[in-house]
Amino acid sequence: MSQQEMLKGNTETLLLSLLLLEPMYGYQIVKEINARSSGYFDFKEGTLYPALHRMEREGLIEGRWQNTPGGMRRRYYYITLKGRFVLSDRQAEWQRFSRAMNSVIARSTVQPEG
Amino acid sequence: MGDFESYLVAFRERLGLGSAESQEIVEELESHLNDKARDLEGQGFDGQTARILAVRHLGDPSEMARRMRLVYGYAGWTDVMLAALPHLMVGSMFLLEFCCNYFIIALFLGAITAVTWYGWHKGSPSKWLYSWLGYVIVAPVVSFLIAIHAIGYGAWVMLTGKGLPVFDPMIILLICCAPFAMYSLLKLAREMVRRDWLLVSFAALPVPVFASWVLFFHSYEIYMGIHVEMLGNVDYLDMGIFVGLAVITGLYLKLGRRALKVGLLLVSAVTLGIVTAIAMPPGFNLTNAAMVFLAYIGLIALPVLWKLAMKPPKSLGSATT
Questions:
Q1: Count of structural domains within chain A
Q2: What is the rounded CA–CA span in Å between residue B263 and residue B187?
Q3: Which pick of A71, A91, B15, B130 has the fewest CB atoms within 10 Å?
Q4: What is the mean pLDDT of each run of 10 residues along chain B (321 residues)?
């Protein structure tokens, strides 16, 4: 499975985890994900906004326009109570999944040929 | 700014959503492009290259618009049920012969007002709320029509030499009510049209049905007792109109493309205009029926004409409706 395919299935979890830390606007989210994953998650900017708007319609996050000190208007996203519950479930599921994966992978390390 | 503007205009044209929704999304993308270009300039790129790269990173505007349409174009089943609910409530009032039960009518109006007030003040109104707003519009329209009729009646009394109709407090009350009803109606309708004229046209679909009843009853000077007798019976045709409205509303929310929605509106307006004219009680002649039909089409076309007459907001891509 490619990195992009894995990212696609976990976009919501990543976004909710970030927004749990603090409210952020779109471009800030892209930069934070790249920085926190040391560039591993090359988040496509074109996929971010549809994802954010879909999550907003599902009530997981809420977008609010705010004026910055520089006079610009930015749309900040806040995690909602429903979003927190969903994130909690996803985190628990992820823990179970990663434990199971690790326990299988750890016992079958591939030795380089030759 | 040329790169951003052409990108955002192309995106907005392909988005095909209502003006308020489009406006917010375009503004957000514009803010993103500015941030990105500033960041790239900080990394040493010149202004022009930074803007080109910022646009390139965001991706093809058609693809971006398609993804956004998938989010906004289709409503969930909960939205569909909530949007159809007020029509079904009115339809069931016909079925259960509650049309002349003032307690039930007051309860219905109270529920409509409370839900609409809550939905409108909560923030961005959901799509399902518009069908409820349609019934909120009905009240001032009917009040206005009755008031206009009262003014006409007063003028007729004066002309026939019977003196001013100041003895009738109901007429005075109705005349006073006319400006307020029109003011409320225009204020609410303007805000709704600004957000999305197409949704407003769909919301307004029940208005001509109620308005034609009022016009009929007053034109023929039918008194309250006959109202009760006529409306008190189970009227399957009128019930069918409201069930039809519920189905049309559901279809509207489920259709993705705006062009299909416009097509649905045209077909619905013509069909409902004909059915409403047919559903009028005996005594309603062909000229009256034709007037009801034309009024129907006129009222449904009003939001788009109003929108075209409005001054477009100063922002990118706002030229499209």
A1: 1
A2: 28
A3: A71
A4: 80 75 87 91 89 89 84 75 89 75 78 81 70 79 71 71 60 66 73 77 81 62 47 66 89 80 86 76 66 75 78 47 39
Q: pLDDT tens digits for B49-99?
A: 999 999 998 888 888 888 887 787 666 777 888 889 988 988 888 777 766
Q: What is the chain A residue with the closest CA to B66?
A: A50
Cβ of A23 under 8 Å from any chain B Cβ? no
Q: How far is CA B224 from CA B214, B228, B229, B315, in A?
A: 12, 6, 9, 53
Question: Among the residues of B220-285, which ranges form H helices?
Answer: 224-232, 236-254, 258-279
Residue A110, domain member (yes or no): no
SS3 B104: helix
Question: Could you tell me the CATH number of the domain that includes residue A96?
Answer: 1.10.10.10
Q: Give me the pLDDT at residue A85, please.
A: 93
φ, ψ for residue B52, nearest 5 deg:
-65, -45
Q: pLDDT at residue A69 above 60?
A: yes
Looking at residue B32, its pLDDT comes to 92
The verdict on a CB contact (< 8 Å) between B59 and A25 is no
Q: Which amino acid is at B47?
A: G
- What residues in A contact B34, CB-CB < 8 Å? 72
Structural domain including A9 reads 3-105
pLDDT of res. B222: 45
Locate the chain A residue with the closest alpha carbon to B61. Answer: A46
Identify from A28, A43, A47, A49 which residue to disrupt to test chain B contact, counting B C-beta atoms within 10 A and taking the largest count: A49
Q: Which residue of B has its CA nearest to A67?
A: B31
Q: Which residues of B touch A75 (CB under 8 A)?
A: 24, 27-28, 31
- Chain A residues in contact with B65 (beta carbon < 8 A): none
The answer to whether residue A111 sits within a structural domain is no
Instruction: State ipTM.
Output: 0.85
Cross-chain Cβ contact B59/A49 below 8 Å: no
